[in-house]
Amino acid sequence: MDKHGFATKAVHGGQSPDPVTGSVVMPIYQTSTFAFKDADQGAARFSGAEEGYIYTRLGNPTVCALEKNVAALENGEDARACASGMAAITAAVMSAVKKNDHVISTDCIYGGTAKLFLDILSNYGVDFTLVDSSNMQNIKSAIRKNTRLIYLETPANPTLKLTDIREVAKLAEKKGIMTMVDNTFMSPYFQRPIELGADVVIHSLTKYLGGHSDLVAGIIVGSKRFIKALDPVLKNTGGTIGPFEAWLTLRGIKTLPLRMQRHNENALKVAQFLESHPKVARVYYPGLKSHPQHELAKRQMSGFGGVICFELKGGFEAGKRLMNSVRLCTLAVSLGAVETLIEHPASMTHAVVPKAEREKAGITDNLVRLSVGIEDVDDIIEDLKQALAQT
């Protein structure tokens, strides 16, 4: 599929008509285990002498199709699908570092990732330093002799601050450090970190790739060498995806290019509306010329995504009234869905992050996150307009 365009890969990558039935759509292999033709074949598969399926935690045809599809979209060599985005992050980081290693991470990251790094993996002897990775000097200053991984979220969740992936990857390569990027906010349609020099890419498939708020899954994309190192961690900790979730994700990916275009178009119009509203103090969206990293966004991404963050002049109480007043927008966490979702990071997705750390990363109490869906944009704007009138 290398010679084909992105939309063609999204529809056909990792899939072909079923050789037995002729089914055009990838079947759901809803099974826990696979039969061997004889004892010798079972032994050969367990020893690795023969390729084939054994048990769905170790591999499944539907899951394999998804892995090949997303690897093709990210221009990676191989991939492994996981039970959630957090399962993907956990397995990927555990495969990259060991006790007494040091990790540099973006300071403004998803709350669950921050909790994993600072409260869980740190208990196993891994040291984490969180920095404002939008400033290269911060990364350079944080590097130690035992630094093994630089972990980036770009755009950052939820402030949409950007990190120059190419520059970080160049620095990391010189120092023999791995670069890992959570690409959930952009999807491979708008940003492909491996093409910019990153070693590993992670997605919460729950978001844009699945796209319909009906599944929870994640994926890790990297070199064959990294995936080989990842396999024993992922398969023996058990964070693998089920075949039905894999099938749902494959179905969602087929329309990814169309949805991402609409998310992008709608988000830009909504961001422009919010920027002009008298009750909005500030809008964060890479597609706006007012975004301090707009030029980097244009170099690094082919679009700006569907997530907007904005601060209200009335503080937290104004934000609370706004969220309680929306009618079309849904008050719910998550993002990247066909529906427009609105939430308050400080009390919801990032509540587990200590207040001082949140504020240092720019996650203020009056910050609102809006994941713009694919509804008619005029309807989204009208809903926000009436809700803002009540703040």
Outline:
It is built from 15 helices and 12 strands. The chain is of the alpha/beta class and 391 residues long. The strands form 2 sheets. Strands 1-7-6-5-4-2-3 form a 7-stranded mixed beta sheet, with helices on both faces. A 5-stranded mixed beta sheet has the order 8-9-12-11-10.
Oligomer: single chain
Apparent shape: globular
Number of helices: 15
Radius of gyration using CA atoms only:
21 Å
User: What is the CATH first-level class name of the largest domain?
Assistant: Alpha Beta
Structural class: alpha/beta
Please write the string of helix (H) and strand (E) elements: HHHEHEHEHEHEHEEHHHEHEHEEHEH
Span from first to last CA?
A: 51 Å
Tally of strands:
12
The CATH superfamily title of the largest domain: Type I PLP-dependent aspartate aminotransferase-like (Major domain)
* Global mean pLDDT: 96
**CATH fold-level name of the largest domain:** Aspartate Aminotransferase, domain 2
Tell me the strand percentage band. 5-15%
* Weakly predicted, low-confidence segments: none
